[in-house]
Amino acid sequence: MIDHSHKFVSCENCGARNKSLFAGLNGEQVEDLNEHKACSHYKKNQGLFLEGSIPRGVFCVNKGKVKVFALGDEGKEQIIQIAGEGEILGFRSIFSGEPYKVSATTLEDANICFIHRDSFLSIIDSNAAFRNELFKEFSKELAERAEFITNMAQKSVRERLAFILLILKEVYGEDPINISREDMANYVGTATETLIRLLKEFKEDGLIDIATRKLTILNKAGITKLAGLHR
């Protein structure tokens, strides 16, 4: 049994669980999960796992935001995902048995739960419904990753920024988007200077508002049209 520190968050009372793949677990399974996980508080810019390291379990975001990224040849980050509450990270590497292909680092102070590989696989083996949800998640992420790659490869920088803003809006919900300009540029795939110039233009066009680095989308329909999407 894992020692529960003052940072421990009970699965029964975890609001993020209802947003995660664990939402369908029954009472006994939730209790078992609760006894076989550890919770830790992570400071901003603290790493969860590194590209090339051996996966030992999965991470579930209880509170906060996490960036998932790969490093280019010159050490520049290419962010491929911003994970929010309820998202589970690292489970693909558990199945492949290979080292992590990406790294994950907190964007802000966060509370993260860790579930050891054996416990996670035990849940999969004993719960057909959870296993089916996991397969659905695989399919969904495959489709989303294909859309992401297509958009990033074929769109202009302006269109990519609009596309990324829509993704960030889904992650942050009703809260303002709070991410550094460097990280946003690494997500869009452009220079920080170019991103700052485009954000200024978006603000002048009444598409967004910016206050103390925090960004609010004022015209979602306009951003969607600019991204070349039909949502």
Low-confidence stretches: 1-6
Largest sheet: 4 strands, antiparallel
Tally of separate helices = 8
Shape verdict: globular
Q: Bin the helical content.
A: 40-55%
Description:
The protein is of the alpha+beta class and 231 residues long. It has two domains: 135 residues, Jelly Rolls; 72 residues, Winged helix-like DNA-binding domain superfamily/Winged helix DNA-binding domain (Arc Repressor Mutant, subunit A, Orthogonal Bundle), CATH 1.10.10. The chain is built from eight helices and ten strands. A hairpin with a 5-residue loop joins β4 and β5. α5 packs across α6. The longest helix is centred in the middle third of the chain and has 27 residues. The chain is globular. The N terminus is likely disordered.
Please specify the SSE layout and strand pairing.
Blueprint: H1 27-35, E1 37-42, E2 47-49, E3 57-63, E4 66-71, E5 77-83, E6 88-89, H2 91-96, E7 103-106, E8 110-116, H3 117-126, H4 128-154, H5 157-172, H6 181-188, H7 192-204, E9 208-211, E10 214-217, H8 220-226
Antiparallel strand pairs: 1-8, 2-7, 3-6, 3-8, 4-5, 4-7, 9-10
Helix pairs in contact: 5-6, 5-8, 6-7
Question: Which key features would you list for this structure?
Answer:
Arc Repressor Mutant, subunit A; 22% strand; disordered N terminus; alpha+beta; 10 strands; 2 domains; four-stranded antiparallel β-sheet; 231 residues; Jelly Rolls; single chain
